[in-house]
Amino acid sequence: MSSKGGGTALSRRNYRLASDTDKPKVTGERDCASLTEILLYLTKVVLLKHCFFLWLTSCVSAACSSADQVDGRLGPSPVVLDHTSGFEGLLFVDDDLLGVIGHSNFSSIRATTCVYKGKWVYEVLISSQGLMQIGWCTLNCRFNQEEGVGDTPDSYAYDGNRVRKWNVTTTNYGKEEKLVERDISSWQLQGEPTVLVTLAHVFNYFAPLMCKVYLVEDVLMNFLLGILEGGGSVDEHPLIQQLLDLFWLLMEDFEVNECLKQLMMSLLRAYRFSPIIPDLGFQIHYLRLTTAILHHEKSRKYLLSNVATFDVLRSVVFFYIKTPLRVKEAGLEELIPTTWWPTRFDKEGKDEKDLRHETAEERLRRRAYERGCQRLKKRIEVVEELQVQILRLMLNNKDKGTGEASRYIFLNKFRKFLQENASNRGNPTVLCPPEYMVCFMHRLITAVRSYWDDGKCKSAGAISSEEAYVPPQVFYNGKVDYFDLQRLGGLLSHLKKTLKDDLASKANIIIDPAEIQAASMDDLDEDEESGAAQRPSGAAAMGGALARPSWLSSPTLGRANRFLSTAAVSLMTPRRPLAPPEKVKVRTLPVEQRTEEDIEGSHGNDGLLLGRPLEEPDQPITEKSLLEILDGIVMMYNLSVHQQLGKMVVVSDDVHEYAVALKDTEEKIARCPGRRPDILEELQKSQKVFAEKLNHLSRRLAWINATIYSKEKMLDVYWVLRVCIRTIEHADNTGSLFAFNPEFYLNVAMNSYSALKNYFSPSNSMEELPGDHSINVRHAPLLQPLLADVHIKDSLMQALASYVCYPQSLRAVERIPEDQRVAMMRNLLAPYEQRPWAQTNWILVRLWRGCGFGYRYTRLPHLLKTKPEDANLPSLQKPCPSLLLQRHMAELLSQDKDMAASFLNSVLNQLNWAFSEFIGMIQEIQQAAERPERNFVDTRQLKVCATCFDLSVSLLRVLEMTVTLVPEIFLDWTRPSAELLLRRLAQLLNQVLNRVTAERNLFDRVVNLRLPGLESVDHYPILVAVTGILVRILVDSERQGIARAASVLLSDPCFQLHSIQHLLGEGEASAAGADHKHFSLHAYTDYISAEEEQKVEQMLGFLTEESKQAAATTPTCEDDLCPICYAHSISAIFKPCSHKSCKACINQHLMNNKDCFFCKATITGVEDYSKPAGS
């Protein structure tokens, strides 16, 4: 202890005067204001003392029973002042060595005790005013008249007069030494001071122990859990709140922090690893205590602010409901005593939804199973409600009295959490597990929507959560950091440079020049080399504005699209007001630097909504912080939620597979002859195994349906879908600023629609959702050159392909304005060479499927004939053709001759490539299979082979659709390319027929191998597609067209009549012997109608007669045949070189080359040629 000046006295006789409040007391570890706060806190302590002492007595006695035996102190038992060698300066010491008065400039004196282990405290009573420093020092510490305790490196002191702590340097510490009322809670000075003094003494021993994890987990957590054992609402147990108040009052901040850290980590571990029991009691118990702790404002803010203990990545554990690995462990047998699974399947292996054929026993089992599922769901809902309460506490924005509100602390942590998961997608060790993310997203949606609707009730002009969306200005005003995620128009740095004028004119935003100059010259060079197709070329296309079609207005909202095929018209029309508001300079803010004002705004600052475009309505939406959380929810779905939703469908698929296997086994048992008991025994063993597995899977599926695929979860995903649609629609109205929209909004819109359609059935059907829930992607092909990312282009085409698969979404596409439907079809009919043609071809095929020849199946018929019970067979959606879009296609191809020629030539080119690749691959597969050594065909090669076959079939179906809708393209030879197109078509059809129908050919041998991965490769898909084309041009056309088609087909050198006869099982194949089963359309009566069979027979008879007549005619002289193909007569002469060939050869040659076949001269024209009569 050191004192400045004289007159300072410490007396032992005054120590027990508890009411002597005018003489502040100082401890070696607590500041002099501690007892002041204790006395001010008296009111609450009196209410708590009975319950609190029960706990304190048990804890302290248990903790201190062994502490007395710890050897950490040296010196006599009564501590006195060292008046022999432990002082410096002029001092007067009392006779009992317990009081001292200093009379020199800066006197110091020690006590006679040394402590070296544990934690210790001593008290002194100050009897006079003056500058004094009281503290601790080491044995080697030396004092003088200028340096006392706290002034040397090996000492520490507190100065209550100046309210500072000393250790060579000084900092503020403690409070002023006087009694004041506590402003916040208005506590009054009353009660029993001895209780507070006693508590202070107890906490001197108790507080250090609260930092020990084993004590917190074993004693403190169990004590707090015991308080909540009585049940009821968490708000009905104020004792926990009062205990936390005592902690913050009587313990040092670092001690409370460590105690709360260990307490929350203990709760997290207990919740995560606690066993699952039928009533989920453990999980509910731990969540209730977590909720009670977070109800305490100061503790909640500390936990949210502490990066190490309560960051979002760890706290999401509290929102996860883990799936039990063992059914018995979770008690599901008690909740769901009766199991059920589908037992009736249609001919395609799908579950029958018609319950009219259900037996009484099956009905009872199903209803008992459904009741068990409901019991399980209700218990899970209790846990989910507690999890939502935790999130609502974290999202509280009304607790601003003691600093930043909880919501803004959470929001910054939440954004950091999203950044870590978006930036480390290749490093799973630092990512939030997808199953945690799914549960977290659902709870966050519920909490956000509740706050959103609460705000709607308070503000009449705000929108409800049903109409929620993210305004477009959030994507470009820099208030929200998207950490370099891709935008629809490319990278943000590039968009800021190219669209800075649009930002200034439309949103009154000026980008900080420092950000624009951040890109180096190397980056600029790379941008130039990447090409204009990889970035928006605003200046070149629209005078500085991004030329982008308005393609995503949603029929979900029932609004008409405001633009036609592009935004050109609206962008060319100036919309600037006469007196534009003052422009604001903005720059991107890191998450750590944002404040509440940056988010919510103040004094004319719009916060997150800064830079509202003219097209955006000027109305309140909701609290701006909720908009950023909503944006984070959409990002969460894109990061891993959709992936996890698809992964959990496997359990439902397993139930279906085992159910099919069990039914097949039961049928085999019924057919098993009585003389084979060995087979019967094995079948019964299999039956038992399948039944046990189904019992387990059906209970596990009930858990998954309740936690992931319930109706409420489906509505959450549907809400996310509508948020994305509205967000894209509002961004669409901004014209060129649409390029700032993050691409994950488009991904989430497409993926969530797919999830609703495929993942939640059959437990919940998308048809039960309100409204029209499709996304209109009519301009997806047109948008492709304007998007920077190749993946998003493919996703757009895949999305459109999936929407035209389903009747409901297809009808929504048909309801868009006619001019936009026509624009969509025009872009789908663009030449295939200019874009990814496979996706476009699939779209056209799906618009046709259901109208083609024998094209009404959902499972490949040849597979159903061989393996009807296999549930893994490739499956297609039920046919839902669009006659309206087919009509638009027919009109476009009929009116625009050049577009029709270029489109069909590209289709024929791709068909030639795809089928040639397929033939080459099956040759390699056959050679590998015939080698004597054991060879395994690469699965990737098999997959590519099957893909080429599927592409060939789909291209043939597009040709069938074109021939059916617009036959004049091939048969009206007044059109410039009609004859060439017909000859090319005939040539490819003959090649396909010859390759596929030849007796015991390569195709037959590979099909008979039945290799896994080549299930779709068979005669039926490709031969039926070819047959549909032939029937249309040889039977259903006009007489002149039929004659032209027959002439071209028969004149082709590759034509073989037996290939046509093969379709009905006739010709050479029928004479090959009865040991080989031949393909015949007659064998597929379930898929080919009698009328279609009759047309094939009519076509075969017609071609038979025509081939006989062609054989009877006088053959053409060899000199008159085309020297290129030797199949047709010379009919064209070239200019200027006068060489000759048939029209088909020269027209096809001129598509790719302008040089003459023979002399390589440049051909300037082609004229008709006929042989002179006298020649």
Mean pLDDT: 75
Q: Separation of termini?
A: 135 Å
The rounded Rg comes to 42 Å
Largest sheet: 7 strands, antiparallel
Strand proportion: 5-15%
What does this structure look like?
Residues 593-603 have a biased composition (Basic and acidic residues). Residues 521-540, 592-615 are annotated as: Disordered. GO terms for molecular function: ubiquitin protein ligase activity; zinc ion binding. The structure is a single chain. With 1175 residues, the chain is mostly helical. Among the domains are: 72-180, no CATH class; 202-347 and 359-439, no CATH class; 642-712; 819-915 and 946-1067 and 1078-1112, no CATH class; 1118-1168, Herpes Virus-1, CATH 3.30.40.10. A hairpin with a 1-residue loop joins strand 13 (164-167) and strand 14. Helix 22 crosses helix 26 (743-758). The termini are far apart. The model is unreliable at 5-53, 55-70, 177-194, 519-580, 773-786, 868-875 and 1069-1075 (pLDDT under 50).
